[in-house]
């Protein structure tokens, strides 16, 4: 999850991860090749925030001003849209909604849900006052809502627009039992290591290609007098992303898919191996900014700030997370991406380099002409371009011109995302029911926070994960 950014289900099947089985051992190889383009980020400008660092390929930004899809006139009609976004993300999404208002005459009100999207929307639905449209950061919640009959299938116009603009993998992500409920408007690339260039240079280390090299470099950085890695352990979701990247690369995509669906247990030897590997980092307090106790008291935004709070003597040398780290760097620090801050792909852990994505799916909770029109608009390159030109945004819409992104850094990530096609793996915790994969103080978040506190207790962590998963998946 991101709180933002947080696999896929093939239409006509019960499973929400069958596309993974379909791609099988084609694995993350193609995605890894695509993600190599992300390494170019280390030479380019900021990922977050607007401001173009160079000229695009022409015509992309203008998509925001072109009517790429036909919409009805909705003067006088009011809609409510709910999503987890706050701050700059909310402001940029509201610009998308304003573009829809301008096109249709409708009035749209945005409501933040808070991090517990399931609880917020569930109470609204059960109270008989749901928003028209909501954006869900967890595919597991989408499935839960569909199973409860809370979601309305997308209309034919939206499905036609999706078919033109999205690969089958992204369409399948929003499908349950052969019905299309979700549209992935916003995506995230979640396999990146961001680092302070001065800290790496002073320690004499470079960008790690393997996990062993990453651990070795971290020790060297620690010996140089800088805490190597900032971990946002106060927020449970970054810990799930650490585990997932290691597990995908080490255990492979087929086991990743099975664990995501709880077709193998969390007591499986592959989980033990991944946790033992993660303990190579979490088990050495000198490798963590503030040690284990400090990591548990650090939220995600602060973990980013620690890595880039100084160009000479930062509180940490690096931080792991998705493309959205660039937003925090640009907003909360004085570091310049491409100079003070650079990024490289998550290192290989015995297999292919992992490629994990996340995303936010738009769904209809209250059907009607206006709701359908908004969903169709969100499926268009026109809507994606509105936010893309503002920065801090990735779209799986393959018809969005790459030049719509404001700088070369984001264009490289976007190319990688689109080039991966259907060969990607979606955030595992976001596939699970929220009680296991997306709730503060519960399930996977809590078990991995306890693991960060005591990395020696691999067996206990596995038992806690399995007990929670079995209860939620009702095995």
Automatic annotation (TrEMBL):
What the entry lists under InterPro entries is as follows: Bact_solute-bd_prot1, SBP
> Pfam families given for it?
SBP_bac_1
User: What Gene3D superfamilies does its record include?
Assistant: Periplasmic binding protein-like II
| Compositional bias segments (type: Polar residues) | 10-20
User: Which keywords does UniProt give here?
Assistant: Transport
Question: What ranges does the record give for the region Disordered, renumbered to this chain?
Answer: 1-20
Report the domain of life of the source organism.
Answer: Bacteria
**Family per record:** Belongs to the bacterial solute-binding protein 1 family.
Protein name, UniProt field: Carbohydrate ABC transporter substrate-binding protein
């Amino acid at each position: 999850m991101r709180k933002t950014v947080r696999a896929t289900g093939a239409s006509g099947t019960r499973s929400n991860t069958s596309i993974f089985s379909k791609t099988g051992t084609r694995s993350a190889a193609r995605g890894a090749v695509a993600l190599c383009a992300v390494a170019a980020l280390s030479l380019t400008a900021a990922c977050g925030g607007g401001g173009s660092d160079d000229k695009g390929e022409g015509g992309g930004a203008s998509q925001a001003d072109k009517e790429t899809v036909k919409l009805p006139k909705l003067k006088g009609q009011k809609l409510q849209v709910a999503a987890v976004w706050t701050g700059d993300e909310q402001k940029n999404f509201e610009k998308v909604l304003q573009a829809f208002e301008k096109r249709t005459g409708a009035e749209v009100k945005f409501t933040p849900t808070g991090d517990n999207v399931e609880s917020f929307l569930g109470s609204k639905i059960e109270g008989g006052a749901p928003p028209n449209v909501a954006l869900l950061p967890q595919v597991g919640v989408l499935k839960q809502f569909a199973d409860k009959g809370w979601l309305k299938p997308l209309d034919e116009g939206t499905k036609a627009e999706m078919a033109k603009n999205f690969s089958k993998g992204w369409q399948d992500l929003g499908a349950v039992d052969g019905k299309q409920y979700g549209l992935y408007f916003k995506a995230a690339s979640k396999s990146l290591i961001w680092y302070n260039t001065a800290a790496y240079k002073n320690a004499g280390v470079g960008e790690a290609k393997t996990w062993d090299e990453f651990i070795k470099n971290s020790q060297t950085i620690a010996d140089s007098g800088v805490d190597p890695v900032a971990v946002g352990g106060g927020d449970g979701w970054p810990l799930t992303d650490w585990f997932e990247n290691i597990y995908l690369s080490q255990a492979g995509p087929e086991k990743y898919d099975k664990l995501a669906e709880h077709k193998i247990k969390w007591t499986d030897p592959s989980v033990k191996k991944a946790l033992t590997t993660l303990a190579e980092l979490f088990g050495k307090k000198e490798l963590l900014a503030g040690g284990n106790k400090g990591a548990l008291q650090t939220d995600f935004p602060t973990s980013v700030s620690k890595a880039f709070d100084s160009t000479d003597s930062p509180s940490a040398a690096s931080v792991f997370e998705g493309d959205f780290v660039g937003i925090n760097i640009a907003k909360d620090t004085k570091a310049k991406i491409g100079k003070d801050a650079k990024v490289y792909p998550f290192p290989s852990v015995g297999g292919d380099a992992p490629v994990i994505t996340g995303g936010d799916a738009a769904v209809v909770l209250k059907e009607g002409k206006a709701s359908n029109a908004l969903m169709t608009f969100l499926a268009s390159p026109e809507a994606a371009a509105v936010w893309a030109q503002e920065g801090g945004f990735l779209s799986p819409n393959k018809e969005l011109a790459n030049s719509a992104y404001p700088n070369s850094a984001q264009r490289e990530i976007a190319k990688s995302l689109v080039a991966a096609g259907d060969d990607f793996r979606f955030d595992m915790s976001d596939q699970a029911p929220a009680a296991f994969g997306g709730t503060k103080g519960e399930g996977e978040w809590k078990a991995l926070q306890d693991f960060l506190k005591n990395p020696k207790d691999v067996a206990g962590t596995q038992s806690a994960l399995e007990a929670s998963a079995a209860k939620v998946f009702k095995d």
